[in-house]
DNA sequence: GCCCATCCTTGACGCAGATCAAACTTCCGG
DNA sequence: CCGGAAGTTTGATCTGCGTCAAGGATGGGC
């Protein structure tokens, strides 16, 4: 991950890669300016913990580039990932001063942070931001509920297939259009992180990935690069309706 | 469940039992009046399905009395409960016309419904409603994430203890003050519904409840009435921090 | 080049919880 | 009062995944 670039921060919202998907998506010029006034960028390195559960948290923000995870840990060390944060996803909760989860950077990251107090102030007077935040929160709630089905009722193989199809689908919508036919992407997570997401052990994750490879559902190139020859086949393995995902 | 009462509907918001906890909690008189104009009450019987996943849904609303469940079902019949709706909880999603989950009345229920279109209209011009809805959605998201830890990482015994402690805590905050010491409540769910919530089979639920009873963690009176002699002990069995729940 | 850390894979074995099966309790309708 | 349905309990057995253990790949630092 030796990244030479001194990340040139997009000081200008107009050029921001997440301008039209983040919490600021629906803002007009003047609202954007208000946000601009309370924003600042922060970089995080892969592996770095951004916030510890229980810590004071004086900012909220958006993932600009990179990937982070939201995890809960029990006293005896068992951990469960409860969210995967991708570019444009929102971090933190207005109205709460203490973090409820650990937030960890999985890759090098750039975050666009807002000081919490002014952001909350802005929320109460700027409907565009509040409405967008509501939309995004409802989407996250749907994702969490979809994940409850995965955790509660799916087999290990179905869990892996579900994770792959979610990552694949998101990649597809980001790059091209509809997910279909062949598809290639990189796994942004280690086997252990996948296990934490899926409520499995890393050994089981490894075994099931091997099994899916043996059965031709996926093709691996190294440990991380995945090719899905037939996306419908993968959805089938995930136990999902082949029409895929939630109705909108 | 032979309920004689013809439920006298609280036409008046001022006398509504959920006035200060539902989506209307932060409304002033005039906003309340706007809501009042688009609201209507509906009754449901225990066991009745309120909405089918995939159905058109032309209303949103609040649970006034009674209990409902939100469930997802896979093609082969495996089902997972993804939400438990108690009085004041919100049903439906603004901006979506098709239901994503089955909503089933677990007891006799009264719902305060709003026609969807006018409600969405109102959302965009009434910050008090939009803000309250955001708060409630964030709370639900936290609950869903707490439940992901339960589903993904807890043992059957811990799952049962977690469910009991959640129901107990909610009962306590509804009736008295802080949950502590002795506590009595009724289980609002069948063993099967508990199994669907916990990602278990109903046999395992039954066995673990018996085990908790044998070990003195709970006392049963009939199948449904539960006494918890020592709430901290129950929290301990649930694997939760004894200070209990999310920081606020 | 070699070493070491991190990540991953694979095997052997055991157990928590699923599955299959049967019987009990409660309660409502006739 | 009896019969049957719905819900619950308990037992016997099976199995998917966890646990423990060993070894293989990869890549960065020296």
Automatic annotation (TrEMBL), chains A, B:
It comes from Roseovarius spongiae. Gene3D superfamilies: Jelly Rolls, Winged helix-like DNA-binding domain superfamily/Winged helix DNA-binding domain. CDD domains: CAP_ED, HTH_CRP. One of its GO terms (molecular function) is DNA binding. The lineage of its organism: Bacteria, Pseudomonadati, Pseudomonadota, Alphaproteobacteria, Rhodobacterales. SMART domains: cNMP (SM00100), HTH_CRP (SM00419). Pfam families: cNMP_binding (PF00027), HTH_Crp_2 (PF13545). Keywords: DNA-binding, Transcription, Transcription regulation. PROSITE patterns: CNMP_BINDING_3, HTH_CRP_1, HTH_CRP_2. InterPro entries: cNMP-bd_dom (IPR000595), cNMP-bd_dom_sf (IPR018490), Env_Response_Regulators (IPR050397), HTH_CRP (IPR012318), RmlC-like_jellyroll (IPR014710), Tscrpt_reg_HTH_Crp-type_CS (IPR018335), WH-like_DNA-bd_sf (IPR036388), WH_DNA-bd_sf (IPR036390). GO terms for cellular component: cytosol. Residues 154-232 form the HTH crp-type domain. Residues 23-140 form the Cyclic nucleotide-binding domain. This is Crp/Fnr family transcriptional regulator.
């Amino acid at each position: 991950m030796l990244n030479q670039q001194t990340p040139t921060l997009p000081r200008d919202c107009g050029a921001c890669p997440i301008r039209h998907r983040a919490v600021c998506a629906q803002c007009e010029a003047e609202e954007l300016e208000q946000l601009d006034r309370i924003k600042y960028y922060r970089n995080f390195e892969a592996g770095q913990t951004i916030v510890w559960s229980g810590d004071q948290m004086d900012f909220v923000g958006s993932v600009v580039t990179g990937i982070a995870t939201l995890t809960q840990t029990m006293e005896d060390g068992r951990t469960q990932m409860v969210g995967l944060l991708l570019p444009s996803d929102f971090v933190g909760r207005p109205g709460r001063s203490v973090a409820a989860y650990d937030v960890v950077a999985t890759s090098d990251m750039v975050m666009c942070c807002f000081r919490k107090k002014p952001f909350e102030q802005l929320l109460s007077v700027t409907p565009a931001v509040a409405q967008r935040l509501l939309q995004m929160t409802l989407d996250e709630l749907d994702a969490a509920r979809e994940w409850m089905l995965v955790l509660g009722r799916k087999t290990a193989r179905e869990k892996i297939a579900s994770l792959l199809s979610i990552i694949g689908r998101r990649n597809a919508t980001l790059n091209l259009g509809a997910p279909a036919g062949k598809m290639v992407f990189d796994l942004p997570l280690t086997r252990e992180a996948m296990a934490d997401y899926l409520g499995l052990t890393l050994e089981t994750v490894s075994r099931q990935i091997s099994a899916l490879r043996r059965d031709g559902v996926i093709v691996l190139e190294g440990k991380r690069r995945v090719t899905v020859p037939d996306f419908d086949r993968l959805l089938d393995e995930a136990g999902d309706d082949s029409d895929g995902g939630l109705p909108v």
